[in-house]
Amino acid sequence: MYSKDVSAQNFQAEVIDKSRTVPVVVDFWAPWCGPCRILKPILEKLAEEYQGKFILAKVNADENQALAGQFGVRGIPSVKAVYNGKIINEFSGALPEPAVREFLERIIPNESEIKRQEAMAIYGRGDRQTALAWLDKAIELDGNNYNAKINKATLLFENDEPQAAKDLIAELPANMQLAETVKELLTKIELAERAHALPDKQTLITQIQEDGMNLQARLDLANHYINEQAYDEAFKLLFDVLKKDRHYNDDIARKTLLSVFTLLGPQDARVRTARKTLASLLN
Q1: Number of other CB atoms surrounding residue 209 within 10 Å
Q2: Over the stretch 240-281, which tens digit does the pLDDT of each residue have?
Q3: How many angstroms separate the Cα of 8 from the Cα of each of 14, 26, 40, 58, 60?
Q4: Which is the catalytic residue, given 6, 33, 82, 191?
Q5: Per annotation, catalytic residue among 36, 138, 185, 191
């Protein structure tokens, strides 16, 4: 029930998609492989014993050579643990049952992680306050559940509590504070705080209409648009500032653009287009 044969045809559904909710242990094996015949029954037995805490996906490497190559299989048996679409742990060779159990215990989410996942599912259904309460439970169970703290910081920011979000981020280890998701969140907080401290939008629009060289009003209005995720309007204003005064206020227009590029990510089509415009203005 908790183990199945998987091929390239159903790998996406049975491994990648399923790993969004439960760890999937992929066993690359072959009929001629002696160690595979030792390991495979152990994995099948434990899959039943763990009753759905992980799913066992058995892949015949001979029949799915391209798939095995894609996953970096150099010899068999080769076992890969996939969670949230990514390989989180692996081993090669036939391990004894106690060692396989230790491997499984490392990849199966603990109670804190289960509560974190439930919190984000609740958040996905639109109930931010209940999600925050569940994240508190997850953190109470495991103070080192850093993903729960990052999730909570994100929800606190969306709840208009930027300082609380920053305080929580400050509790993370230094290496976690450098994670892309954390840096993006800090950028969002910084941009939002900047926008909240500005004059209202209509006042800024009036100032720009009355004084075409009012660069600060353009910058301030751009920050309002960034906070509203109206990035095209923000980019236009920031490019206007660069055209009128390349180095205004310590090059703040260019720095703001780069912050938004980081926030949106390099694959965003708006970023690719804006980068080209920025490059042409700086040349």
Answers
A1: 10
A2: 999 999 899 999 999 999 989 988 888 899 999 999 999 998
A3: 10, 12, 19, 11, 10
A4: 33
A5: 36
Question: What residues contact 280, with CB distance under 8 A and at least 6 apart?
Answer: none
CATH code of the region 198-282: 1.25.40.10
Known catalytic membership, residue 233:
no
Gap between the Cα atoms of 255 and 269, Å rounded: 19
| 111-194 CATH, one of 3.40.50.720, 1.25.40.10, 1.10.10.60, 3.20.20.60 | 1.25.40.10
| Average pLDDT over every residue of 50-64 | 94
d(CA 2, CA 169): 38
Active site residue 157: no
Q: How far is CA 222 from the centre of its chain?
A: 27
Question: pLDDT digits over 185-202, tens only?
Answer: 998 898 888 888 889 999
Across 38-67, average pLDDT: 95
Residue 227: the pLDDT is 86
User: Which residue reads 């055209």 in tokens?
Assistant: 243
| Phi, psi of 99, rounded to the nearest 5 degrees | -70, -35
Cis upstream peptide for 96 (omega within 30°): no
